[in-house]
C-alpha cells in the first residue's frame, strides 16, 4: 500500500473558502455597485493555490514521493500571500536600522473624515500620509522641541478588529534626528519623542488644509449620504466642525531596541484586514470570527455576521491599484535614504552609549541568484526538487492543492 505524506495543516477555514462558496452570489447581488478592483481581489483570493493558477510538481530525491504545489495569487489583500513579501521587505529594512531607540506613533482620522476617505481613498489616504509626516517633521524641527530633521516609516491600516472602516497610520520613528547644519545627531529625551497634544493640533490643521485644497481642485467625490457635501457651504461647515473636534494621536512606549522594531514591522507592514486564523465558523448564512473588543478592555469575543455583510466589510479595505500603503519620510525618504542613513550612523558613533542600542549585524551584500526554497519532504525529510509543471486550468478552482500524490512508480 502506497504511503501518502501530508504537509503542515492549514487553518480549518480560509477567506478563500468563503469567497468560493458565496462570492458569486455576492457579485450577482451587488452588480453595478461592486468595483472592478474588488472583483479582481475576490477572484485572485478564490483562485490562490488552486489548479486555476497552475503550478509545479515536486519529487523527493530519497523516497520518490511527489506532490503538486499550485501557484499563489500574490495579491496584497490575500491572507496567504504576505509571508514572502514580508520577509524580503524586512531583510531590506534590517540594513537600515539605526542604533537608537525607536518610537511608535499612531494617527487616527475622526469618523466624519473617515467617511469622506472611504469614498475618495486614493486622494484622502495620501493626504493622511502627508499630513502625519509633515506634522512630525514640523514639530521636531522646532528648536523648543527637538530642533532636528527626523525620518521614519508609516504604514496604513484601514480596519478595526470588527472589520469596520477605521483608517489610521502606524509610524515607526527613530528617537532623534540630524541637526539643521548636519553636524551632529540630536538625541531625544529618554522615553519621550514629541508631545502628542501639539502634534495632534498640527496634524489636524495640515490635514484639513490639504483636504480643503483637494475639494477646491474638484478632486473629491461625494455619494449617497455624503452627497450634500458636494455643496461648498456644506463642506465648509463640516470642516469647521472638524476643527473643533479632538483628533487622536497616540504615542506608544518606545521599543526596547531595533530587534523589537523588526518584530513589530513584521506584524504590521504586510497585514491584511483579517487573517485566516481568526475565522471560526462558516455555514450557509453566517460567518463567525474572533475579535478583541478594546472598549471592553481588549476582551476576546466572537462576532457572527451574515455572509453578505462579512464580505462587504472585507472589501471595505481593498486599496486602489498602485497605492503604496508603506511609505517613508524625512531623512528616510526614498530619494536620499542611503546617504542620509550613512550620515546618521557616522554622527551617532560619537555619542555616548546611553543613547545607543545594539543593532543586529547588517547582512552582507549577496549578488548570487537566489534559489527558491522548497519545503523538505514531509514523509522522510528528504530534498524536494521541481520535476514538472502543471498548466493553468481556467475551468477549475479547487479548494486547495492535494499535498501529495503518493510515491513515483
Fold and architecture overview:
- There is one protein chain.
- The strands form 4 sheets. A 5-stranded antiparallel beta sheet has the order 8-3-5-4-12, sandwiched between helices. It has a 4-stranded antiparallel beta sheet with strand order 13-1-2-14, with no helix packed on it.
- It is of the alpha+beta class and 409 residues long.
- It has helices spanning 15-29, 36-47, 83-94, 111-119, 121-141, 196-216, 232-243, 258-268, 307-315, 337-348, and strands spanning 55-60, 65-70, 102-108, 151-159, 165-174, 176-178, 185-187, 249-251, 279-282, 286-293, 299-306, 326-330, 384-390, 406-407.
- The chain has 10 helices and 14 strands.
- A hairpin with a 4-residue loop joins strand 1 (55-60) and strand 2.
- Helices cover 33% and strands 20% of the residues.
- The protein folds into 2 domains: 15-78 and 374-407, no CATH class; 96-273 and 316-355, Replication Protein E1, Chain: A (3-Layer(aba) Sandwich).
Question: How would you sum up this structure in a few lines?
Answer:
The chain has 409 residues and is of the alpha+beta class.
Number of domains: 2
Structural class: alpha+beta
Please give the order of strands in the largest beta sheet.
Answer: 8-3-5-4-12
CATH class of the largest domain: Alpha Beta
Unreliable stretches covering 5 or more consecutive residues: 1-9, 358-372, 397-409
Number of strands: 14
For the CA atoms, what is the radius of gyration? 25 Å
Most strands sheet: 5 strands, antiparallel
From the 3D structure, determine the CATH topology of the largest domain. Replication Protein E1, Chain: A
Instruction: Write the H/E string, N to C.
Output: HHEEHEHHEEEEHHEHEEEHEHEE
Shape from CA axes?
globular
The CATH architecture category of the largest domain equals 3-Layer(aba) Sandwich
* Distance between the amino and carboxyl termini: 13 Å
Average residue pLDDT: 84
Helix content: 25-40%
Number of helices: 10
Roughly what fraction of the amino acids lie in strands? Answer: 15-25%
